[in-house]
Every structure is written in structure tokens, then in C-alpha cells.
């Protein structure tokens, strides 16, 4: 059975960095990928766009292909969503199917701040996506925990449900949502950093443009 890869984030807004690395991860792992927007991210400030607005942008961005799918379960829950709880839910739903949590290198380096982080390996594999501008250095405690789990063979990921860590050599793209929000707030038009679908309806990017007026 193909692995199921989960790519969580605030997606405030979804950008071509997210889409490109998720697409390449899907190819490298031969996995179905679900993009999973977070409602109230436990370890960061509130998103600029509402949950509904971020979902609308994701829908517009994902239109026309079927390799990357949207999963809104964390938004459908009230309160903060902890990844470990979401993963247990997936495990219940999908039995022994391999699960892969996709994390950008920056998110992976901060894993120790996550709720019950060591438990993640019981439920999922982790796929680390390289990201330019991110210090590749992994904190010692984290590296000690992941060293025995590392593999560079996608077949190993497909052969067991959880517990391994794989670095996925995706094309580096130095795009961040922070930079895009700054450009939009400054009245700029970062057309080729964002999926074309986000420009079909002017309402989609309005939450970021309006921030410059307040
Ligand atoms: P912000 O600038 O608001 O922090 P972001 O661009 O990092 O946003 P998030 O929604 O926070 O986007 O990221 C979701 C996931 O996507 C994280 O695991 C993050 O590391 C990863 N990610 C985002 N952009 C890239 C990129 N250009 N290359 C690789 N991974 C990325």
C-alpha cells in the first residue's frame, strides 16, 4: 500500500514552496500527500487569514491535480491541535499503512518543543524536506533520538508503518509565507511565488493586502 504522507502547516498563505516540496516528496516516496491546515498552531502566533480563508486558498491552489489532497480535520476540531493526537487518529483510520509526517528542515530542528515528540516515532515516519536559509544543524538531543532511525531508502519507509526518518532531497526554494505576507502588505504583487489560482479571485489574498491599512 502506498504510504500516506501528511504535510501540516498554517499555510498563511499556501505558496509554491509548499506545493513544490510536497509534490516532490510524493514522487520520492510514491506516497499520497495530504495538506493539513492547522487551526490554532500550538507554538506560534495566530495566522493573519482565518481558517476558512486559508482553506479557500488551499482549494484554489490544489485545483486541477490529484496527487496533493486537502485534509481539514484539524480545523474541524475545536481548540489547539497537537500533531500527535492527529496522527493517532490517522493510525486508527488507516491501520498498518505507512504514515509519513513531512516537515521542513526548520520545523524538524524544532521538534523537541512539540507535545510528546518522542511518541511521534511510534505512530509515523518523518520525512525531512530541505529548506534553504535553514541551519542544517540538528540539536544534539534530537539527533541522538533520530540517528538509529535514519534511512535513505524510500523502500524502507514503504515496508513498515512507522519509526524511521528520511531526508528528502527536494529542489530548494527559498520561499516563505512571512516574506509573501510582507510583500502583499507593502502593496507588492508576488505573482510567481504563489499558485496562479490565488489570483483568480481578488478576495483570496485580501486578508494580507488589508493588513497594510490597519
Ligand atoms: P511562515 O513564514 O508564516 O512561518 P512557512 O512558509 O514556513 O510560513 P508554514 O505553513 O509555517 O509555512 O509551513 C508548513 C510546513 O512547510 C513546515 O514544515 C515548513 O518547514 C514547510 N515549508 C514551508 N516553506 C518551505 C520551503 N520553501 N521549503 C521547504 N519546506 C517548507
From TrEMBL:
Record field: catalytic activity: nicotinate beta-D-ribonucleotide + ATP + H(+) = deamido-NAD(+) + diphosphate
Keyword Cell membrane: no
Pfam families: CTP_transf_like (PF01467)
InterPro entries in UniProt: Cyt_trans-like, NadD/NMNAT, Rossmann-like_a/b/a_fold
GO process terms (BP): NAD+ biosynthetic process
Pathway it works in: Cofactor biosynthesis; NAD(+) biosynthesis; deamido-NAD(+) from nicotinate D-ribonucleotide: step 1/1
CDD domains: NMNAT
The protein's enzyme class: transferase
Enzyme Commission designation: 2.7.7.18
Residues in Cytidyltransferase-like domain copies: 6-182
GO molecular function terms attached to this record: ATP binding; nicotinate-nucleotide adenylyltransferase activity
Keyword entries, A-Z: ATP-binding, NAD, Nucleotide-binding, Nucleotidyltransferase, Pyridine nucleotide biosynthesis, Transferase
Protein function: Catalyzes the reversible adenylation of nicotinate mononucleotide (NaMN) to nicotinic acid adenine dinucleotide (NaAD).
Family affiliation: Belongs to the NadD family.
PANTHER family the UniProt entry points to: NICOTINATE-NUCLEOTIDE ADENYLYLTRANSFERASE-RELATED, PHOSPHOPANTETHEINE ADENYLYLTRANSFERASE
Record protein name field: Probable nicotinate-nucleotide adenylyltransferase
UniProt source species: Dyella psychrodurans
Amino acid at each position: 500500500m502506498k504510504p500516506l504522507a501528511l504535510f501540516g502547516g498554517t499555510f498563511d498563505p499556501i505558496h509554491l514552496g509548499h506545493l513544490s516540496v510536497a509534490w516532490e516528496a510524493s514522487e520520492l516516496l510514491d506516497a499520497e500527500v495530504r495538506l493539513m491546515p492547522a487551526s490554532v498552531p500550538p507554538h506560534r502566533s495566530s495566522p493573519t487569514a482565518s481558517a476558512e480563508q486559508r482553506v479557500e486558498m488551499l482549494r484554489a491552489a490544489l485545483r486541477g491535480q490529484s496527487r496533493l489532497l486537502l485534509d481539514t480535520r484539524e480545523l474541524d476540531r475545536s481548540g489547539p491541535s497537537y500533531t500527535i493526537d492527529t496522527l493517532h487518529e490517522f493510525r486508527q483510520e488507516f491501520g498498518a499503512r505507512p504514515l509519513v509526517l513531512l516537515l521542513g528542515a526548520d520545523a524538524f530542528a524544532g521538534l523537541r518543543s512539540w507535545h510528546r515528540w518522542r511518541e511521534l516515532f511510534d505512530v509515523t515516519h518523518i520525512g525531512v524536506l530541505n529548506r534553504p536559509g535553514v541551519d542544517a544543524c540538528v540539536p544534539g538531543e534530537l539527533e541522538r533520538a533520530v540517528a538509529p532511525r535514519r534511512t535513505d531508502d524510500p523502500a524502507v519507509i514503504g515496508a513498515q508503518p512507522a519509526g524511521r526518518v528520511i531526508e528528502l532531497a527536494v529542489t530548494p526554494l527559498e520561499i516563505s509565507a512571512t516574506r509573501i505576507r510582507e510583500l502583499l502588505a507593502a502593496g507588492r504583487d508576488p505573482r510567481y511565488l504563489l499558485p496562479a489560482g490565488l489570483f483568480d479571485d481578488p478576495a483570496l489574498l485580501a486578508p494580507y493586502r488589508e493588513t497594510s491599512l490597519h
